[in-house]
Design a protein that fits this description.
34 strands; globular; mainly beta; seven-stranded antiparallel sheet; six-stranded antiparallel sheet
C-alpha cells in the first residue's frame, strides 16, 4: 500500500530484485527527468556544475572504477538517458506494476517478474504475513526467487539483547466501512503477552478489556489496542494500534460521503481537497450555502485544456449503494472568476458511461449550481471529473455533500 514502492528518479544502473509489492499504487517507477525538467541542472558549464562535481572526485579512477565499473562509463553515449536499470524476479500483487516514462520499457531490463491480481500463496495476507508458503506459485513461475527471511528482519535476541520489546498488535481489517456486523481480529506476534483494547477511541491501559476472541462491531467506532508482556507486570506496553470503522446505512438521506473514502486514483490542481475550500481556510460554500462535507477538484492544465478527476471503486460494502448525489458549482472563494463543467461517469458493462454532464458553471454573481442524482445500478466504479477549459484561474470546482446513498 505504498504510493511508490521502488522509485528511480532518472538515474542509472539501479537493481530492483527479489521484492514483493502488494497493493502499491506504483510498484516500480522510472522517470527520465534528466531529459526533461531537470536537464538544465545537468549540462556542462551550468550553474549547478553536475559534470564538474563528478569530475572532481575522479569517478573513472580507483577506487570508484573498481567498485563501480558502470560509473566509469556513465558519460558514454547519452548520459541523460536512464540506462542500465534492471527489475528482476519481483512479484507484484494487485496495484500497478510499472509506472514508466513513455519509452521507459526500451531502456529498462524487465525479466522474470510475476504480476498477478490473486494471492500468490502468502501465509496469511489478512494478518499482514506476506511470507510465501512452500507451495506458492512464485517458486514455480519466478526462476531463482529467494524466500524473504521475514523472521530475520528487525530486532533479534542475542547476548546483548535478552528480550524483545513487544510490537504493536495488528488489527484485521485495519479500518474501513461496513454495513453488516463486522468481525475484527487483533493479532500479536508473540504468545507470551496480553492484548488490551478499547472501542471508544480511548487509549488502552493495563486495566482495559483483555482481547480473547474476535470482536463483533455493529456500530461505528475506533478500536485501539496495545500489547503487555504477560510475565512482566511492570513492563511498558507496545506502541498502540488504531483502526477506525464506520458503519454505513444506505438509503435516501443516508450513506457515506466520498470525502470519507480513499479514491482509487485522483488528480487535480492542488490535489484532491476534502471538506474544505481550495484555500483550506473555510468549508465549501456555494451561493452562500455551506457544505461541511464535500470535494474540491480544481482542473489541472493539460495541453490546450484542463481537467481533473477522482475515481472511486464500488467494492463491498459500497456495492449496496443505489444512488450518487451532490451539489456542484464553483466555490464562493473563487473570487467570481472561476468556471468549470462537471461530469459523472459509471463503469459498467465493461466500459465508462456518462450519466451526468453539466454546462459550464460560473461563480458568483451568476450563482449557478446543479443537483446531481444518478442511479448506480450495475456500476463497479464512479468517476467524477471537471473541465476548466483553457483558463484555470479560480476554477474552484466543488462537489458539495458528494455521497453514495
Amino acid at each position: 500500500k505504498c504510493d511508490y514502492g521502488a522509485f528511480i528518479g532518472g538515474g542509472h544502473d539501479n537493481l530492483v530484485e527479489n521484492n514483493i509489492f502488494v497493493d502499491c499504487q506504483k510498484s516500480l517507477h522510472l522517470d527520465n527527468r534528466s531529459q526533461g525538467w531537470a536537464h538544465k541542472y545537468q549540462v556542462r558549464g551550468g550553474d549547478h556544475r553536475m559534470f564538474g562535481k563528478l569530475e572532481d572526485v575522479h569517478y573513472n579512477e580507483p577506487p570508484y572504477s573498481i567498485r563501480y565499473p558502470e560509473l566509469a562509463r556513465i558519460l558514454d553515449g547519452d548520459p541523460h538517458s536512464p540506462t542500465g536499470n534492471r527489475a528482476l524476479r519481483n512479484v507484484c500483487v494487485r496495484g500497478t506494476w510499472l509506472h514508466l516514462f513513455p519509452g521507459g520499457e526500451k531502456v529498462m531490463e524487465l525479466k522474470d517478474n510475476l504480476v498477478t491480481a490473486d494471492d500468490p500463496g502468502f501465509v496469511d495476507a489478512a494478518a499482514m504475513d506476506f511470507a510465501l508458503r512452500p507451495d506458492s506459485r512464485v517458486f514455480r513461475e519466478v526462476p531463482g526467487f529467494q524466500a524473504i527471511p521475514f523472521a530475520q528482519i528487525g530486532l533479534q535476541v542475542d547476548a546483548n539483547r535478552t528480550a524483545l520489546p513487544p510490537r504493536a498488535p495488528r488489527i484485521v481489517p485495519d479500518g474501513g466501512t461496513f454495513v453488516d456486523p463486522l468481525s475484527v481480529k487483533i493479532v500479536a506476534d508473540r504468545p507470551d503477552c496480553v492484548i488490551r483494547y478499547t472501542l471508544d477511541g480511548g487509549e488502552p491501559t493495563s486495566r482495559s478489556a483483555a482481547y480473547t476472541q474476535p470482536l463483533t462491531l455493529t456500530a461505528s467506532g475506533t478500536v485501539q489496542a496495545a500489547v503487555w508482556p504477560a510475565n512482566d507486570p511492570g513492563a511498558r506496553p507496545s506502541p498502540m494500534a488504531t483502526a477506525t470503522f464506520v458503519r454505513i446505512e444506505f438509503g435516501q438521506g443516508k450513506g457515506v460521503y466520498l470525502s470519507d473514502l480513499e479514491p482509487e486514483s485522483a488528480f487535480a490542481h492542488g490535489g484532491l481537497i476534502r471538506d474544505r475550500n481550495y484555500r483550506r481556510n473555510d468549508f465549501i460554500t456555494l451561493s452562500g450555502t455551506v457544505y461541511p462535507k464535500g470535494l474540491v477538484l480544481c482542473p489541472e492544465k493539460q495541453g490546450d485544456g484542463s481537467r481533473s478527476e477522482a475515481v472511486y471503486v464500488l467494492a463491498p460494502p459500497l456495492d449496496k449503494a443505489t444512488r450518487f448525489v451532490a451539489t456542484v458549482g464553483i466555490d464562493d472563494g473563487g473570487d467570481q472568476r472561476g468556471s468549470a463543467s462537471f461530469r459523472v461517469e459509471l463503469f459498467r458493462n465493461g466500459g465508462w458511461e456518462t450519466v451526468f454532464q453539466s454546462p459550464v458553471l460560473r461563480g458568483r454573481p451568476n450563482e449557478e449550481q446543479r443537483e446531481v442524482n444518478v442511479e448506480l445500478r450495475g456500476a463497479t466504479k464512479v468517476r467524477l471529473s471537471t473541465d476548466g477549459g483553457s483558463d484555470i484561474s479560480a476554477d474552484h470546482a466543488a462537489w458539495g455533500s458528494a455521497r453514495l446513498e
